[in-house]
Write a structure and sequence with these properties.
Helix content is 65%, strand content 5%. It is mostly helical. Helix 3 runs parallel beside helix 7 and helix 5 crosses helix 6. It is globular, with a radius of gyration of 20 Å.
């Protein structure tokens, strides 16, 4: 007689949480409003769809595992939003040199426009990682094993060199090397994570597992498809001007461009693991306890620095990346 996995037993006695139903309702209303032509929804459709998706995905994780970022680790979820904005702005700064995408029908009012940047960019990391958590909670690739990589640190120097090359070449010759941006930080930061004991894909490979790597690739592919699908129907959106590959498109994205989403997900994971090193090992996969902690001097100093970075980046997007405005 076969007994169901423990997660299945638990999920049958646990209700789908309210924020998941709320996300489903908002997504349904937003889709209907979009297609009947309610203008304000068409302008804000992209963040409405993505925030709904994040609520639904988090609810699925809770339903399967009994815990999730929103239900038990809201503080870590909130921090993930701020890291998401900061991380995506890094790629917006690369785009000023690459000119791979631009924004259309962006609000002319600065407050409304910058609020749109914030609520949209904040969805990047939660969307990727909640998707990965859903796949993990359903046991996808649970028994996936691979031949262990020899335990060694000889790959450190080549990885750092490749990472630097991947990030420098697009800045020097953007027309030819723009795709390398979506993988550079993987090679640059993974040696740091491995050496100092942060979660590391290379360490998992040395232990005979590439499951996290595969789940990240899959999550990137799924989120990439949803990013482009929901962006296509929105009035305020981005469009691409990618050299050489711009003619054959699915939604607004050139077909070959979809190959960038899986490594981008891996890159986000590696970057967040490096950030966790600065937070004494805490992160979205290993949250801090919920008890009250006094505000540290590091936080007091970091907040104005991050706000300055955001304001500078928002202004650069306004100047270099916005192609058209709306009242």
């Amino acid at each position: 007689m076969r007994f169901p996995p423990e997660s299945e037993v638990l999920s049958t006695s646990r209700r789908f949480p309210g924020h998941g139903w709320f996300g489903l309702a908002v997504l349904g209303v937003a889709q209907i409003s979009l297609f009947v032509g309610i203008e304000v929804v068409s302008y804000w459709f992209y963040p409405l769809a993505w925030w709904s998706y994040i609520l639904i995905a988090d609810a699925l994780v809770y339903y399967r595992k009994g815990t999730s970022l929103l239900t038990h680790h809201f503080r870590e979820f909130f921090l993930l939003l701020s890291w998401s904005i900061s991380l995506w702005l890094l790629f917006e700064m690369f785009n000023i040199r690459l000119h791979n995408w631009h924004y259309t029908m962006v609000p002319i009012n600065t407050t409304e426009r910058w609020l749109g940047y914030i609520v949209s960019y904040a969805t990047v990391l939660p969307g990727l990682f909640e998707t990965m958590e859903v796949f993990e909670s359903y046991g996808l690739l649970q028994n996936c094993r691979t031949r262990p990589l020899a335990s060694s640190s000889h790959w450190y120097a080549p990885f750092v060199f490749i990472g630097l090359i991947f990030l420098l070449l697009p800045l020097l010759w953007p027309q030819f090397f723009f795709p390398l941006v979506w993988g550079g930080f993987i090679f640059l930061l993974e040696p740091l994570n491995h050496h100092f004991g942060a979660p590391s894909l290379m360490r998992q490979w040395q232990e005979g597992s590439l499951r996290t790597f595969y789940l990240l690739l899959l999550s990137g592919a799924v989120c990439g498809l949803l990013w482009e699908f929901w962006n296509y129907w929105a009035a305020t959106k981005w469009e691409y001007t990618v050299p050489f590959v711009g003619r054959l498109k699915l939604f607004e994205m050139p077909l070959l461009g979809f190959l960038g989403f899986p490594p981008f997900a891996v890159q986000c994971y590696v970057i967040m693991n490096t950030i966790s090193l600065c937070r004494h090992g805490h992160g979205w996969q290993n949250p801090q306890s919920g008890r009250f902690r006094p505000i540290s001097l590091y936080t007091i100093l970091a907040v104005p620095l991050f706000l300055t970075y955001w304001i500078f980046a928002f202004h650069q997007i306004d100047v270099h990346t916005v192609a058209s405005w709306r009242p």
